[in-house]
Amino acid sequence: MPVHDWTRAQAGILHDFHVAWLSEIRKALNGGILPEGFYAMAEQHVGHLIADVLTLHGGPAPGEPLPAFPVAGGTAVAEAPPKVRRHETVELRGAARPRSLAIRHVSGHRLVALLEVVSPANKDRPASVEQFAAKALDALDQGVHLLVVDLFPPGRCDPQGIHGLIRQRLRHSEMPYDLPADEPLTLAGYAVGAQVDVYIEHLGVGAVLPEMPLFLSPDRYVSVPLEATYEEAYRGMPAFWRNVLEGKTPATP
Hints:
- The chain is an alpha+beta fold.
- It contains 5 helices and 10 strands; from the N terminus they run H-E-E-E-E-E-H-E-H-E-E-E-E-H-H.
- It has helices spanning about 10-35, 125-140, 160-170, 225-235, 240-245; strands at about 40-45, 50-55, 75, 85-90, 110-115, 145-150, 185-190, 195-205, 210-215, 220-225.
């Protein structure tokens, strides 16, 4: 199913789809994609972060190392690098931002990764864009891996897209990101270790969503079935709004 032009829909309609899609992603991750010991939860507060989907590990307390990644689970980057068209590496520049807060789930289980689906509210004003970028950087500073799904084109507050802003903050540089004009939607998976490796795909409206890596350690990941989960969530939308998104009906009479 091709990606729709979500700028056609009202904010409430997008929120409804957003919730449904996250539910399908969580269901898929917990349905066998995540290795034993890992699990996903939706819309949880973790310290000062609010994440769309959390990937947690029921292991040791914060500050203690995670056990070795299960041999039978996930994919090793060395054996099968994520199938994306762009890969960048950003060297971390020491403690550019505080690293003292330990991020953990209220149950005591360790936070491993975040998945964020960008909404119009994340782009509606400069403060919203900066807040989203700051949340992403806070997660990476804590060694939490990240997958950002941005199905909205750049606006006046994010002229190179959300990833472009995160990239600038990571690099401590205002150099603009070369976002393809004909593929303005961005998917970016961040793996954080001694450095941050970023795996990026760009697409335009009408393209099919690729699988994207969600990292569980700096060198191991699982593939998130964005297309299948998107299709399942879209199937449950009201017919009127499906027609609007498909260009068959105007949003207002």
